[in-house]
Amino acid sequence: MNSTLFLNGLRFVLLVLTQVLIFNTLNFLGFINPLVYIIFFYWYPIKGNRALFMITAFLLGFMIDFFSDTLALHSMASLTVAYARPVIMRFCFGVNYEFQNFSFKNTTKIQRLTFLGLLILLHQLVFFTFEVLSLSHFLLILKKVFATGVVTLVICALFSSLFSPQTE
Amino acid sequence: MQRIINFILSYRNAFLYGLLMVISLALTIRSHSYHQSKFFNSSKWISGNIYGTAANISSYFSLREENQRLVTENEALRRLLFNYGKVSLEKKQDSSNLALTYEVISADVVKNSFSSPRNYLTINKGSNDGIEQDMGVITTSGILGIVENTSTHFSTVQSVLNTKSNINAKIKNTDYFGSLTWNVGDYNVVQLVDIPRLVPLVVGDTIVTGAMSSIFPENIPIGIIKRYDLDNSKSFYNIDVELFNDMANIKNVYLITNKYKEEIRELQAQTEDE
């Protein structure tokens, strides 16, 4: 339990720094800044206190907001992803994810990728909707969600295969 | 009572979600309508220092380019200096007045953003260096923004690429003025609105800051007209202005303050009260 706590704490700090110092300054094609910290929600242990998970997600988003002067946009998106994660998991892995012996190792690659993709899609939708906050820019929102989402998915997939967690 | 407590306990996650969502919504709406948050912004000690360290490292990669820019500027300033005798004979009153009214402080950008609808920059000078809210920020090529918040060693600057930004601007060598805004489109193009229809416009005309604001001195370059058309009421122009600044590549900036800003404000407030 202690090592899980330590591991997630370390991830938290490193992901905030990576996001803020590297990926927020990327500006690929002028507007694409992949939000790689979403991988935190993919890596977070499946079993555990849900309330604690939501508070952690909120804090993670808040730290990133604090650095990038977008107060509470990242927090809002992260919080929503954390709240909706069990639903997305049931959708991707079926009911058997609730059993004790369930682990990521028993799932197929496609299932994991769908899970990651849905987490990213939900996050981007909430984030860009509230960032732009006007329906007259609907196309702009879609463009941003799609472009940033695809780049984020590619980078997160790379991250997840590079640093795959051993403990879960 | 027992039932209410049971109900809340069984839906505690939904309640927690609602509570945190309301908090973040409130913060978002506040930052849309008022100034940027006073307490949580990137000019604070920890974020400022982390950005400062990162900028220290990455600035080495653009040293050559930045030197070139500064040399060009020095050249222009030297030209001014050598011709100063001539200029001052012609309009002595004007230039000596200018030298006294505005003060200039230089700073480095440690964090820049241009891809969100509300962009802020962070610079490495703060209230200890004499930076105050509402000072104007320019680069060697043109206008950049206005200081929004300061801490002791860092400040955040509201960029012209911000939907809340609204700067007085005019067409060079005329006195037709309008407001400079941004429509979240291209990061090198801003919009000039409220220029009356009767003004003759040509694509390529230069846009500079106007004399109406107490923040920027008059005639600081902004950009050139890229495209223009009439707005819905057919009585004002909507002008797309291509910025002189490359907003994606900014390092050295200058902060300008008007010594008589307080005096001007007090006078204006007094006049409006009467």
TrEMBL record, chain A:
It comes from the Bacteria. The chain crosses the membrane at residues 12-44, 51-67, 113-133, 145-163. Keywords: Membrane, Transmembrane, Transmembrane helix. This is Rod shape-determining protein MreD.
Automatic annotation (TrEMBL), chain B:
The chain crosses the membrane at residues 12-29. Keywords: Cell shape, Membrane, Transmembrane, Transmembrane helix. Pfam families: MreC (PF04085). The keyword Transmembrane helix applies. Residues 109-256 form the Rod shape-determining protein MreC beta-barrel core domain. InterPro entries: Cell/Rod_1, Cell/Rod_MreC_2, MreC, MreC_beta-barrel_core. GO terms for cellular component: plasma membrane. GO terms for biological process: regulation of cell shape. PANTHER family: CELL SHAPE-DETERMINING PROTEIN MREC. Involved in formation and maintenance of cell shape. Belongs to the MreC family. This is Cell shape-determining protein MreC. It comes from Flagellimonas flava.
